[in-house]
Amino acid sequence: MKKNNLLLVLVLLFFVFQAKANTVSVRILTTKIINTLIFSPIGGSYSVYGDGVLLENCDPTGIFQMSMEGDFILLKTFEREIGKFGVIKMIAKAPSAAFKVKSVIPQGKVRTYDDNLEIMLTQDKSQLLLINKVDLEHYISGVVESEGGRGSNLEYYKIQAILVRTYLLAHLNRHILEGFEVCDDVHCQAYSNKASDNNILKAVLASKGIVVVDNNLNLITAAFHSNCGGETCNSQDVWAMSTTYLKSVKDTFCLSQSQAHWQRVIPLEDWQAYIQLKHKYPVDDSMNFIRGTSFSQAAGREIYFKDKDLKIPLKSIRSDFKLKSTYFSIEQVGNSIKFKGRGYGHGVGLCQEGAMRMAKLKYSYEYILHYYYKDVNLVDVSALNYFRQE
């Protein structure tokens, strides 16, 4: 890449990050159709705004209920009604403030979040829309805990934090026409609560501002999965999207982990019906069918199940039979078909259980990222002011 073009890309990346460095708007409780909810601070106090006006007669540490009433939201406490509004904002008075929220209609679990909350009606006025206006690093911490769980070590959480940050900056404004930037579901990234694991909080702080870019300084597709079963996949073999960095790698680190091996047994007649009816396999005699019941990936990952003229994408078989991965063998056992599988997930990018094992063995987060993603660079976007002055 020519120097001028390289500098231009770096400057643009800097401006994108700077513009979004402070907060991110996240729709929370996305999968619920909420009619009534309860809000309560759990750390610090909040200013309450109704349609842009500060409601000074509210106890900023109190418990509030919000429910749909026609085209408005009724705001009240246990003692009294406060009023009806189109938009209600709960604004934190301190950076450490946090709150809990619970869906009442329908009943839901208590969730905790950092920073601010905005409540309004959806465009079709069918439900409440909850938007967490949250500090970007607080959001990253919450996603790391939701996606990676608690109890892992610091070095592993640095990896997850960098990938979460990279994914976020690459997909900001995905929901901008709906009034927020990202959702809390796996459509964007799972974000179930504020983080409480100290190692996660330390890792996010230690990796602040770091993202992964390819050799053209584009933010990478930060793909990861639970366990690759010993070998990750090329991106083009799963998503028909070729990249320079999502390449298949051998991985022995995950083979002793919990998701490394699995089995699934189905009736022989179900498999016969599947390949005959859905995939037009000519099962005219028993010998013909026997050849359709043996398949192995002992020599490495394949893309298709093949038998004579039959060619079925393994990802289709995985989807149709709800298998953990496409890395499996097939054998007939009596009147059954046994899928003997390895790994859990799509197999592209970082193998989480492999990375956890590497981190426990004292590999650095930089080494682990370069192990799973080829020809990439770790960039501290906050340092890009240097390139603006070149």
Structural class: alpha+beta
Total individual domains:
3
Helix content: 25-40%
Strand content: 25-35%
Count of helices? 11
How far apart, in Å, are the first and last alpha carbons? 16 Å
The overall strand count is 22
Give an overview in words.
With 390 residues, the chain is an alpha+beta fold. It has 3 domains: 1-25 and 135-218 and 373-390, no CATH class; 34-126, no CATH class; 261-342, no CATH class. It has helices at residues 3-19, 136-148, 154-171, 198-206, 235-239, 268-278, 286-290, 314-321, 352-360, 365-372, 385-388; strands at residues 23-27, 36-43, 46-50, 53-54, 64-69, 72-76, 81-85, 87-92, 98-105, 110-114, 116-121, 128-135, 182-183, 210-214, 224-225, 261-267, 304-307, 310-313, 328-333, 336-342, 350-351, 376-380. Strand 3 (46-50) and strand 4 form a beta hairpin. The longest helix is centred in the middle third of the chain and has 18 residues, at 154-171. The relative contact order is 0.13.
Layout of helices and strands:
Elements (H helix, E strand, L loop, with lengths): L2 H17 L3 E5 L8 E8 L2 E5 L2 E2 L9 E6 L2 E5 L4 E5 L1 E6 L5 E8 L4 E5 L1 E6 L6 E8 H13 L5 H18 L10 E2 L14 H9 L3 E5 L9 E2 L9 H5 L21 E7 H11 L7 H5 L13 E4 L2 E4 H8 L6 E6 L2 E7 L7 E2 H9 L4 H8 L3 E5 L4 H4 L2
Helix pairs in contact: 2-3, 2-4, 3-4, 3-9, 3-10
What is the gist of this entry?
This protein has 3 domains: 1-25 and 135-218 and 373-390, no CATH class; 34-126, no CATH class; 261-342, no CATH class. It is 27% helix and 29% strand. The protein contains 11 helices and 22 strands.
